[in-house]
């Protein structure tokens, strides 16, 4: 009888341990959260890849979906195909939210990609001929940003009071009679040989093997207001996994990675 009681006790202890292990395992599983994040390849996806092990320590698993355009990441985020995206600056997001009626918001500034003027034909803007062909992005905010950079470089003058939504129709003075070609931002590096100069976004310049600090004839300053951000659906701004993502992407490890990897072509914004 005594042996039977002891055996029952042992079984009870084993069962208790198994139950406890099960609770611990389930508890651990419940703490792991998953985020599907849309990003353009350089530098956004690269930064996210670097951050993956740091996020895993915070209990967040991420799936990175790489895009080559500036439209689908916001549409898919709004459509709940993504949990967040990382590819755009604030003026672009705000403009698309207004134009498309999207309920999106940004939650953290991560970095700045200086816009630059590039050429395969010229080594200086002083060599720019009359009637030169100039490529600029065809989306509203980056097109206006490009025109403002060309003005800063002394090539054109925009109408007084012009802002980021400037278009070629806002050019007041064009002394070299520059001919503007408005193209998809991702295409500009590929058609650069056919243009005299092109204003190219930092991420697409890097992706094409261009060094903003070495190859640009004129480069946007580090005081640019065009910080690239993490965007989410407005309802998810306070989501715990999103806040962990923000914590990691604005942490010292990511800052060091950006500074070490892009030679000034990408600048931390935090």
Task: Kindly describe this structure.
The chain is an alpha/beta fold and 270 residues long. The protein folds into 2 domains: 35-114 and 225-268, 3-Layer(aba) Sandwich (D-Maltodextrin-Binding Protein, domain 2), CATH 3.40.190.10; 116-219, D-Maltodextrin-Binding Protein, domain 2 (3-Layer(aba) Sandwich), CATH 3.40.190.10. The protein is 41% helix and 24% strand. The chain has 10 helices and 13 strands. It has helices spanning 2-31, 41-57, 72-78, 90-100, 140-152, 188-191, 202-207, 212-215, 240-249, 252-261, and strands spanning 33-40, 60-67, 84-89, 104-112, 116-118, 133-137, 157-158, 171-173, 179-183, 197-200, 218-219, 227-233, 267-268. The strands form 3 sheets. Strands 2-1-3-12-4-13 form a 6-stranded mixed β-sheet, sandwiched between helices. The protein has a 5-stranded mixed β-sheet with strand order 9-6-10-5-11. It has a two-stranded antiparallel ribbon with strand order 7-8. The longest helix has 30 residues, at 2-31. The protein is globular. The relative contact order is 0.19.
